[in-house]
């Protein structure tokens, strides 16, 4: 779901170079100086900002292709003066080749676009080629964590994971929020207020 277009978003992002990374990544310092976590499709940023606030010892990378959502996320980072979050305004498939191999402890997929039509299945973030990319980016023992309100995407992910090197750790059809070890995105908060079940999968490399 795309945000309503915000004409201020791109100028704001461009103004705050201190929180942005642009392709190609010339300065690798951010990737090498702290434990690294990646969220693909960060939306307006409630999830990743919450984690970054709680864990200043970690570095968080937010990849988002919707400029209006990313603008909102950028504003939160600036207002909270967070120095351990960087944003990338780009499609993940273009970003992936620039990311450090075996560099991430966790990759988060929170309420990704389910692309419900069968002919669009290759666009889903858990299509097998992307799962193989995640495996290449995760360190040994690293985790892929997915939350979704879409049962079809949840079932699709389980099917696509078969035959890969991922090991299933968690499979929940009605995830009870773990406040101590998790954070909530704006989408999850809305879906829970509507009484929708949240599906959660965690895989280990």
Textual characterization of the structure:
The chain is an alpha/beta fold and about 200 residues long. It has one domain: Vaccinia Virus protein VP39 (Rossmann fold). The protein has helices at about 10-15, 30, 45-55, 65-80, 90-95, 130-135, 150-160, 185-195; strands at about 35-40, 60-65, 85-90, 105-110, 140-150, 165-170, 200-205. It has a seven-stranded mixed beta sheet, with helices on both faces. Helix 4 links the parallel strand 2 and strand 3 (about 85-90). Helix 1 packs across helix 4. The longest helix is centred in the middle third of the chain and has 13 residues, at about 65-80. The chain is globular, with a radius of gyration of 16 Å. About 35% of the residues are buried. The mean pLDDT is about 95.
Write the layout of secondary structure elements.
Layout: H1 9-15, H2 29-32, E1 36-40, H3 46-54, E2 59-64, H4 67-79, E3 85-89, H5 92-95, E4 104-110, H6 128-137, E5 138-148, H7 151-161, E6 167-172, H8 186-193, E7 199-204
Question: Would you kindly provide a brief summary of this structure?
Answer:
The protein has 205 residues and is of the alpha/beta class. The chain is 32% helix and 22% strand. The protein has one domain: 3-Layer(aba) Sandwich (Rossmann fold).
What descriptive keywords fit this protein?
single chain, 205 residues, alpha/beta, Rossmann fold, seven-stranded mixed sheet
